[in-house]
Amino acid sequence: MIPLLLDFLTNTGFYMIDILHVFMICVGLVFIYLGIVKRYEPLLLVPIGFGILMGNIPVFHGLGLSIYEEGSVLGYLYMGVTHGIYPPLIFLGIGAMTDFSTLLARPSLMLLGAAAQTGIFLTFLGALALGFSPFEAASIGIIGGADGPTAIFLTSMLAPDLIGPIAIAAYSYMALVPVIQPPVMKLLTTKKERCIRMEEPRKVSQKEKILFPIIGLLMCCFIAPAALPLLGMLFLGNLLKEAVVTDRLAVAARTVIIDTVTILLGVTVGASTQADVFLNAKSIGIFVLGAASFAVATACGLLFAKFMNLFLKTKINPLIGAAGVSAVPDSARVVHHVAQQEDPGNFLLMHAMAPNISGVIGSAIAAGVLWSFLS
């Protein structure tokens, strides 16, 4: 009886656990805490945090339990990440949720979303200088776009072994938008600039809304064909929404499909962070560079808005440049909140959504450009 009991005990996770597993389990608990208690991106952080717990329960290799074992259930689900399947499906849902009216009402604000993508390319160069390979540097740089699906998609194509740390870094910084962006925004703008009120946008017709996803697809994907899987699904989702006759499909895209894929992506990305794979010097470098990329992208959007004001008769509030970082809609909300701290009657949310939405498109184009360039 005692030998059987000892055999049983040596097969448990309690016997096989080490300090690295404990550390990662604590990280998973922090993610769950931030999602549930602090309400930072709960739809992302709770599945990811729980996935981290799943991925760091010690198991015997060869039983088909680990996400990295061939034929395991988690391994099959993880193929949606490694083969770039989940990100386009999430973009389909985002498109079906998004109203492009604010962008169409003032197309010049698209430039702010484009300017914020400068952080991606600067971080790419920085990562190269620090010794990362071109494929790894591109995958790290895309974190600055603050768009988790885009970061996962590009990394799955260029540096699949870095999906775990890059996805965790991207979603961590997306969740921490309310913490990271305000100091940069206040540092680079004056109180007078933060108090600028913007005029009401013009009314956009239904015809414009229907034509935009079609024209947008053709223009963007002719510029960066490699962005087709992401932007094709984004614009399709938006067309389904605006066409009205396909509202049933739009509802499915923005509810059932995106919710299901978000769960699967979050859990499998979290489970991929096994301590023996995840904890290394590269992961630490990715987190540091990711934070730099995010801050630089925010700064670029703000500074470009100030540059635009040099030529505009009707000034824009430079805070909305920070919304070019495509953490939809959180960065737009942060812009609105910071503006209201200075002037409670200043409503910037709908104006900030224009660079916010163009930031999503811009990060996908940037990913396509990097992919094409490196291929």
Can you give a write-up of this model?
The chain has helices at 2-10, 13-16, 19-36, 42-55, 73-82, 86-97, 101-105, 110-116, 118-129, 134-141, 148-158, 163-175, 177-188, 191-194, 206-223, 228-242, 247-271, 275-278, 281-309, 330-342, 349-374. It has one domain. With 375 residues, the chain is mainly α. The chain starts with a helix and ends with a helix. The longest helix has 29 residues, at 281-309. It has 21 helices and no strands. The protein is globular, with a radius of gyration of 22 Å.
Task: Label this structure with key terms.
375 residues; mainly alpha
Element layout with pairings:
Blueprint: H1 2-10, H2 13-16, H3 19-36, H4 42-55, H5 73-82, H6 86-97, H7 101-105, H8 110-116, H9 118-129, H10 134-141, H11 148-158, H12 163-175, H13 177-188, H14 191-194, H15 206-223, H16 228-242, H17 247-271, H18 275-278, H19 281-309, H20 330-342, H21 349-374
Helix pairs in contact: 3-4, 4-12, 4-17, 5-17, 6-11, 6-16, 6-17, 8-19, 8-21, 9-10, 9-19, 10-11, 11-12, 11-21, 12-19, 13-19, 13-20, 15-16, 16-17, 20-21
Regarding quaternary structure, how should these chains be classified? single chain
What composes the largest sheet?
none
The overall pLDDT average reads: 89
Query: Structural class, from secondary structure content?
Result: mainly alpha
| The number of domains | 1
- Count of distinct strands: 0
The string of secondary-structure elements, in order, is HHHHHHHHHHHHHHHHHHHHH
Low-pLDDT segments, ≥5 res? none
What is the radius of gyration computed over CA atoms, rounded to a whole number of angstroms?
22 Å
Shape: globular
Strand content: under 5%
Distance between the termini: 61 Å
Number of helices: 21
Helix content: over 70%
Subcellular location: Cell membrane
Protein name: Sodium ion-translocating decarboxylase subunit beta
GO molecular function: lyase activity
Keywords: Cell membrane, Ion transport, Membrane, Sodium, Sodium transport, Translocase, Transmembrane, Transmembrane helix, Transport
